[in-house]
Specification:
By secondary structure, the chain is α/β, with parallel strands linked by helices. It is 42% helix and 21% strand. Strands 1, 4, 5, 6, 7, 8, 9, 10, 11, 12 and 13 form an eleven-stranded mixed β-sheet that branches. Strands 16-15-14-17-18-19 form a six-stranded parallel β-sheet, sandwiched between helices. It binds adenosine-5'-diphosphate-glucose (ADQ). This is alpha,alpha-trehalose-phosphate synthase (ADP-forming).
Length: 483
C-alpha cells in the first residue's frame, strides 16, 4: 500500500497540541517548533506529510492538514506502549546509554519487544502515506529500527535518518543486548546523520566491531560538496550494507532559526532587570529538567562562589528556567528534588526577603518571553554532562549580535565544537565551572573588547549556519546518497 506524499518526516512526536475548552470539547492544533519550522518549506513544497504520535495516550486525531498544506498523520499509542516504548526503552535504556551512562541504563527484554513493535507500527503508517519513490526522513533515537523495517517493506523509498542525541563510543554501545538489531535498523537508511564528526567516528567504529555480515566500510572518507550553501557538508564515509547498498554517514550540526529570535523588546527586558532589583550580573540557565543538563552542578558552583565571597549576593542573580520533563521516571524526580533543595538552601543562606539570589521556574516559557531572558542575561550558563548539540547555547548567542553577554559552555555539549570561543568548562569539576563563571563575570571589566569579539565570532557562526542550512544540506546529501 502506498500514499501520495513525496516527502515524509517521521518523528516520535507529531507537532500538535491538544487543548480542552471549558465545555470539554477537545481540539488539536499544530505547534510549530524549530524542526517543524525548518522543514515546513520542504514539506509544503513537496506535498509533505509528518507522521508521529500526537502526545496523548489512547487518543489520536484524524489526519489533518496545517494551513500550509502539510498533512499531519498520527500514530496512536496506548498508555502501555507509552510506558514500555517511550519511558522504558527510549528514555531509561537508550537515553542514558547514549549519554555515556550518566545514570545506569536498564536493559528490559519486555521493553525491547514493545519498542520493536511500536517501530513497526510507525513504519506501517509511513507505508500508508508515502508515494512510490518518496523521500522519508526518520528522526531520532525512538525510531532506530524504522529505516531497516522500511527498507524491507518499501525498497522504493529514499530513507534518511538523523540522530539528535550523541552517539556513544562503541565500547559503551556494545552493552546493549540488541546491538545488532539496532545497527541493522540504522543501516536500512541511505544516509545516517549525526551532529558531530566524533559521533560519526563512534558509529563507524561500532559498525566495524559488531556489524559483521551487516555491513562493511569501504574506501576513504568521502567529501560531498553541497552546492548553493555557504558550507561544505561532509559525508564522512560510505558503508556497504550486506545487501550491497551504499549507506552514507555524515556530520550535520543542527542549528536554530535566528529570525525567530531577532528583535527583543528592550522595554520588556529592562522591566525584567528592574524586577530583579538591577543586579550587576544576571546569570541564566534554561534547560529541560534532565539529569544530563548539569543544573545541580551549576547551582553548586554558584553557591561556592557566593560562599567564598568571589560573587556578592547583592551583585549577582541566577535565573534558572527548567522545563518539566519525563516526570514519571525516578532519575528525573530525583534530579528535580536535588535541584529544588539546592535552590532552597542557596536562597536560605544568601537571599533576603525582597531579594532571592536564585530565581527558579519549573515551567516552559513562550519563545518570545524566553528571548527576553536571553537578552537580559549577562552570562548564559550551559553545563550539560553530555548533550548532542544544545540549542539553548545557540539561541542565546543569536540574541547577542551586538557583542554583549558571555557564554559559559560545557566541553561535553556538541555546541562546543562550533562555539569554541565560549568560556568552556568541565561540568564534572565544580572548580572548572567556577573558573569559567568568574572568567565571564570579571571579563566584562578586565577585557571587554576581547569578550565582545568572542560573542561576535559566535554570533557570526550561528547566523551563517542556521537550521535551514542544516535541513537543506542533509536533504541534498540524502538525494545524492539515494541515487
Ligand atoms: P534537548 O535535550 O531538548 O534537545 P536543546 O537542544 O537545548 O535540548 O533544545 C531545547 C529546546 O527547548 C530549545 O529550543 C529551548 O529554547 C527550548 N526550551 C528549553 N527550556 C525551555 C523553557 N523552560 N521554556 C521554553 N522553551 C524551553 C535534543 C538534544 C540536543 C539537541 C536537540 C536538537 O538533547 O542535544 O540540540 O535535541 O537536535
Amino acid at each position: 500500500m502506498s500514499g501520495d506524499n513525496d516527502f515524509v518526516v517521521v518523528a516520535n512526536r507529531l507537532p500538535v497540541d491538544l487543548s480542552t475548552a471549558a465545555d470539554g470539547t477537545q481540539t488539536w492544533s499544530p505547534s510549530p517548533g524549530g524542526l517543524v519550522a525548518a522543514l515546513s518549506p520542504v514539506l509544503e513544497k513537496h506535498s509533505g506529510c509528518w507522521v508521529g504520535w500526537p502526545g496523548v495516550a489512547d487518543a489520536a486525531p484524524e489526519p489533518f492538514h496545517t494551513e500550509g498544506g502539510v498533512l499531519l498523520h498520527p500514530v496512536p499509542l496506548t498508555a502501555a506502549d507509552y510506558e514500555a516504548f517511550y519511558e522504558g526503552f527510549s528514555n531509561a535504556t537508550l537515553w542514558p546509554l547514549f549519554h555515556d551512562l550518566i545514570v545506569t541504563p536498564h536493559y528490559e527484554r519486555a521493553w525491547w519487544e514493545v519498542y520493536r513493535d511500536v517501530n513497526e507500527r510507525f513504519a506501517a503508517e509511513v507505508d500508508k502515506v508515502a508515494a512510490p519513490g518518496a523521500t522519508v526522513w526518520v528522526q531520532d533515537y525512538q525510531l532506530l529500527l524504522v529505516p531497516g523495517i522500511l527498507r524491507q517493506t518499501r525498497p522504493d523509498l529514499t530513507i534518511g535518518f538523523f540522530l539528535h542525541i550523541p552517539f556513544p563510543g562503541a565500547d559503551l554501545f556494545r552493552q546493549l543486548p540488541w546491538r545488532e538489531e539496532i545497527v541493522r535498523g540504522l543501516l536500512g537508511a541511505d544516509l545516517i546523520g549525526f551532529h558531530l564528526e566524533s559521533y560519526v567516528a563512534n558509529f563507524l567504529e561500532l559498525v566495524s566491531q559488531v556489524a559483521g555480515p551487516l555491513g562493511s566500510r569501504i574506501g576513504q572518507p568521502d567529501t560531498l560538496i553541497v552546492e548553493g550553501t555557504p558550507a561544505t557538508r561532509r559525508v564522512g564515509a560510505r558503508i556497504t550494507a550486506s545487501d550491497g547498498r551504499s549507506v552514507g554517514v555524515g556530520a550535520f550540526p543542527i542549528s536554530i532559526d535566528p529570525a525567530t529570535l531577532g528583535a527583543a523588546d528592550d522595554a520588556a527586558v529592562e522591566k525584567l532587570r528592574a524586577e530583579l532589583g538591577h543586579p550587576a550580573t544576571v546569570l541564566l540557565g534554561v534547560d529541560r529538567l534532565d539529569y544530563t543538563k548539569g543544573i545541580l552542578q551549576r547551582l553548586l558552583a554558584f553557591e561556592e562562589l557566593l560562599a567564598s565571597g568571589s560573587l556578592a549576593p547583592e551583585d549577582a542573580v541566577l535565573v534558572q528556567i527548567a522545563t518539566p520533563s519525563r516526570e514519571r521516571l525516578e532519575h528525573y524526580r530525583r534530579t528535580r528534588s536535588a535541584v529544588e533543595e539546592a535552590v532552597g538552601r542557596i536562597n536560605g543562606t544568601f537571599g533576603t526577603i525582597s531579594r532571592p539570589v536564585v530565581h527558579y521556574f519549573h515551567r516552559s516559557l513562550p519563545k518570545q518571553q524566553l528571548q527576553h531572558y536571553y537578552r537580559l542575561a549577562d552570562v548564559m550558563v550551559v553545563t550539560p554532562f553530555k548533550d548532542g548539540m544544545n540549542l539553548v547555547a545557540k539561541e542565546y548567542v543569536a540574541c547577542h549580535g551586538d557583542g554583549s553577554g558571555a557564554l559559559v559552555l560545557s566541553e561535553f555539549a556538541g555546541a562546543g565544537v562550533e562555539l569554541h570561543q565560549a568560556h568552556l568548562c568541565n561540568p564534572f569539576d565544580i572548580d572548572s565551572i567556577k573558573r569559567a563563571l568568574l572568567g565571564a563575570v570579571r571579563g566584562f571589566q578586565w577585557e571587554p573588547e576581547a569578550m565582545a569579539e568572542r560573542m561576535t565570532a559566535m554570533y557570526e557562526q550561528v547566523t551563517a549556519h542556521d537550521v535551514d542550512l542544516w535541513a537543506g544540506s542533509f536533504l541534498d546529501c540524502m538525494r545524492e546518497a539515494g541515487r
